[in-house]
Amino acid sequence: MTLLLFATALLGLVGVRLRQPLIIIYIIVGIVAGPSALDWVSAHEPMQLLSEIGVTILLFVVGLKLDLKLVRQLGPVALATGLGQLLFTIVGGFVICMALGMDAVRSLYVAIALTFSSTIIIVKLLSDKREIDSLHGRIAMGFLIVQDVAVVLAMMVIGSQGAGDTGAGGWVQAGEVLAKVAGLGVGVFLLMRYILPGVVRVMASSQELLLVFAVAWGATLAATGEWLGFSKEVGAFLAGFSLASLPYRESISSRLSSLRDFLLLFFFVHLGTQLDLGNLGAELPSAAALAAFVLVGNPLIVLAIMGYMGYRKRTGFMAGLTVAQISEFSIIFVAMGVTLGHVDAAALGLVTLVGLVTIATSTYMILYSQKLYAWCEPLLGVFERRDPFRERALESEPQPAEVIVIGLGRYGRRVAEQLHERGVSVLGVDFDPEVLAAERRAGQVPVVFGDASDEDFILHLPISGARVVLSALRDPAADRALVKHLRALGFKGTIAVTAHSASEGNALVQAGADHALLPYTNAAEHAANQTLGWLGAGRQA
User: In this structure, how many other beta carbons lie within 10 angstroms of the beta carbon of residue 194?
Assistant: First the structure.
């Protein structure tokens, strides 16, 4: 076990340098350490126990994040895109699996597994790129919530297979399952409404006690779910869901996330040790076909649905890339099917192979989405209406201004407001609809919706009357694209960008910017000068 942890840490460092999610490294470590290669693993039972606990905590955290208010706020676009992608992938995946010679049950399991995308991976990638609050980022988060609900429902359905009396008739067994579901649901609802808020409020007086209570509550419902004949994962999800509407959920979730990630390491390493390299070789043709379907088909259906609903092809393309992989839930879902005897271990190996290929490939597709879009853009015209009315409704006709400030975060918004207060005409630009709504309510600086890295958008900015374009994005790739587009359009004014460091600023100036602002350095110098002033005043006194 110790050797496995060291090997995972060392290979994990390689994965981080390659900008790959660690889930891939965990599975590779398991395969290498398994009986097909080095055969390091002897303590299978402890590892299986830790992996089961990890999956249970994962479902608890998923339930914890699934706030009812958030589900109710899902817009029609997120709902339609999420459900459309689920239906397309299930039907398309099922047809492909049947064509590959699989039986109906295995085809259905694999097809359902192909529908789920990894929310954890997507959130991290979009956050790293500062696109989590962009229009396509918000829409993607919406349909990923739809997927999360779908995967939980799918697990509840297969997890209920053991909840009825197997000796009874089909209708009697179904009635028994429904009665247990209703009883468990009513019990959880009553606890959510009348008991849990008060209990959690008392426990929250100590953060350590709150964490202990959360784990105990999750274990209790997990055991209850298993006792009723459902899976413990279903019980754990309901335990998390019952706490999701409380104000303490973020504190519980943040403290459990590290424990979840550590224990899931054992699940994926254990999974890797169970995979036979000989059997995996036989699944390579099927895995290649299904991986291609996920990498190409899933983004295309999202692009088509969003185009039909009135979004530009660029927004649909960027959102579509987020579903170009399957998730950890896909593997867990098929593993449950193996445990129940519905499918064999070869199906699990197939889905794992598809996961390795799609997660690794889609990571780079998202990281280099701007270049990928520029390459594909000439082929995407069919996916955009003549009038992308829904996205156009977010925009307003840009007003001419002396200064255009791109990026209305804390720094950019304050710069724009300061210039406005000093009588300078300013136009603000941002791709976060919530930021624009807040600025419009404030009524100070005129704002427009747009992405600075989109050449089509730059074409419509009133740059001919502007003297300065100031980017407060602090995203070197986006700033380079902005400078390139502005210079190509013949902009003769001043281009200023913001940078994290002097070296980054110098690189942007070499790329064509006139000035590089260093907010952190400037703020530190100002604070140091003020401190020196205080020291001087104190010494004189």
Answer: 9
